[in-house]
Amino acid sequence: FETTVRTVADTRLAEKPQTMLVYRIFEIDEKVTVMPRDKAELEKLYDSGNAVVFHSKYYPGAHNIEGLSDWFDKNSTVDGLFAKDKQ
Fold first, then answer.
1. 7, 43, 45, 49: which has the fewest C-beta neighbours closer than 10 Å?
2. What digits encode the pLDDT tens for the residues 8-52?
3. For residues 17 and 46, what is the distance between their CA atoms, to the nearest angstrom?
4. 84 versus 16: which is more confidently predicted?
């Protein structure tokens, strides 16, 4: 993961130095015994309430990133990392 993200980040920062890298972090309920190995497994946990966006129980909305459902719908092999320009 780190190597892939670093490659994308280095390329993007060379093109647009004023870029911010954002990635999603989730918290998994302690009753879950097997951690998700891919986005599909994570989505199942998220849909069942056993995974939440980081700190959403403590600071609702503070770590939200728009387009979560679109992100879950993207093919993780093809569309896992992408750049989006914001104004």
1. 49
2. 889 889 998 888 887 888 999 999 999 998 889 999 999 999 999
3. 34
4. 16
Domains contained in the chain, number = 1
Neighbouring-strand partners of residue 52 = 27
- What is the amino acid identity at position 46? Y
Give the position of tokens 């093919």.
75
Report the distance separating Cα 38 and Cα 75, nearest Å.
11
- Distance CA(61)–CA(85), nearest Å, equals 21
Residue 34 lies in a domain: yes
The confidence score (pLDDT) of residue 30 equals 96
Query: Is 9 inside a domain boundary?
Result: no
Q: Identify which of 14, 3, 25, 20 has the alpha carbon closest to the alpha carbon of residue 84.
A: 20
What pLDDT, on a 0 to 100 scale, did the predictor assign at position 82? 61
